[in-house]
Design brief:
- With 376 residues, the protein is α/β, with parallel strands linked by helices.
- The chain has two domains: 8-131, Rossmann fold; 138-376, Winged helix-like DNA-binding domain superfamily/Winged helix DNA-binding domain (Arc Repressor Mutant, subunit A, Orthogonal Bundle), CATH 1.10.10.
- The protein is built from 15 helices and twelve strands.
- The longest helix is centred in the middle third of the chain and has 22 residues, at 170-191.
- The radius of gyration is 22 Å and the shape is globular.
- The protein starts with 7 loop residues before the first helix and ends in an 8-residue tail after the last strand.
Length: 376
């Protein structure tokens, strides 16, 4: 099944313009390789495709031997290196190729931690970065009888990895997500030399999985895991760079009673989160259904911004007297407050919404339920 990704046209347009180094980040299994294959079917440029997992590719691009690279590349106008983070000194090598040959380059990688460390500094001014997350709900191909609200329970329970969109049975989806954790997540964690206790990271993820939608205390996490606060903060940063979780901080500008120094953590994919806690139960049997919907909505906003190449600051808002708004979007001088309700009884502004919009008079307020997701 061909799934059209939002960022496809933006990358394709980039390939039609002046040569640039295009970097594609994203979680494992988010569809980077498939996206590259689709791009290659639409280009008339002669190209060479390399895989960073291949030892010969690592040796070719890891040595920065310009004469040898020129012989290999020849008159090619486009080179693609998938899993580029596997190659040592890849940033310096790509800089050398680009500066001497002025050709289009695509480099992809499943961990911004690895690829950014190896690629960013040498490529300043030469590169443009895209992030490919799991599917957004608008990218899911629906038949004429299907609706987003009708498919919502499936999205919340099994997530939006491209593979889950094509698997048909619940058993297949559960098996795939469990395999994703065992074969990719655990192994990726073990590749980082700075992680001395990989099991602690899995335990940390399990704690976060039970706290989505809630403020997280780093000190409390440290106590529960018998780790120092500094180590927990390092692990959280690592998990963000592996595209497992995202961090949303508190919004504060005007009121002393606003809470701004705490964080909420959401999972990039709900299927991965549910596999971690081994819970794929239907929503009617779950106490966390509302939090799951909030997580999905926050990620849909992030995917939408990323897919369109738009930039915004995202926060949550809470006061010490327990007034709270799920998401604050600050973009182009405008502030929008969103509350996410899986089963909204009405769409009237809440007391928290009234207080927020009265304090921030250039702001607007929206309640988002399942039927609003298409336009959210």
């Amino acid at each position: 099944m061909l799934i059209n990704r939002t960022i496809f046209n933006r990358i394709q347009n980039q390939l039609r313009g002046e040569p640039k180094i295009i970097i594609i980040y994203g979680p494992r299994q988010s569809g980077k390789t498939t996206l590259i294959e689709q791009l290659l079917t639409k280009t008339n440029k002669p190209y060479l495709l390399f895989n960073g997992d291949d030892i010969r590719t690592q040796e070719l691009f890891g040595t920065a031997d310009l004469d040898r690279l020129k012989k290999t590349i020849g008159g090619t106008k486009l080179i693609i290196i998938d899993e580029a983070q596997r190659i040592s000194n890849i940033g310096l090598t790509l800089k050398l190729i680009f500066d001497s040959m002025k050709i289009h380059i695509i480099a992809s990688g499943s961990s911004s931690f690895d690829l950014a460390n190896k690629i960013n500094e040498p490529l300043t001014g030469r590169s443009i970065t895209f992030t490919l997350y799991p599917l957004s709900i608008l990218e899911i191909p629906l038949n004429p009888l299907e609706t987003i609200p009708g498919k919502l329970e499936e999205f919340l329970c099994f997530g939006l990895y491209p593979k889950t969109a094509v698997l048909t049975s619940q058993a297949e989806k559960e098996s795939y997500l469990n395999e994703l954790i065992n074969n990719y997540l655990y192994k990726d964690i073990l590749t980082f030399e700075t992680v001395r206790k990989p099991k602690k990271i899995v335990d940390l993820l399990s704690l976060l999985a039970l706290q989505i939608g809630n403020e997280v205390s780093i000190q409390e996490l440290a106590q529960n895991l018998s780790l120092s606060k500094i180590v927990v903060e390092k692990y959280l940063d690592l998990l963000e760079k592996m595209f497992i979780i995202i961090n949303i901080r508190g919004f504060s500008r005007n009121l002393r009673k606003e809470i701004s120094k705490t964080s909420k953590y959401y999972f990039v994919d709900m299927g991965l989160r549910n596999a971690l806690i081994r819970n794929f139960n239907q929503l009617s049997l779950r106490a966390d259904a509302g939090a799951m919907f909030e997580n999905l909505c926050v990620m849909e906003k992030l995917k939408d911004l990323s897919g369109k190449g738009q930039f915004a600051n995202l926060y949550f808002w809470r006061t010490y007297d327990q007034k709270e708004i799920d998401l604050i979007e600050e973009r182009e001088g405008k502030i929008t407050a969103f509350e996410f309700k899986l089963s909204p009884k009405n769409y009237k502004i809440t007391s928290a919404g009234r207080e927020f919009t009265s304090v921030y008079q250039n702001s607007s307020y929206r309640i988002i339920g399942p039927k609003d997701l298409k336009n959210f």
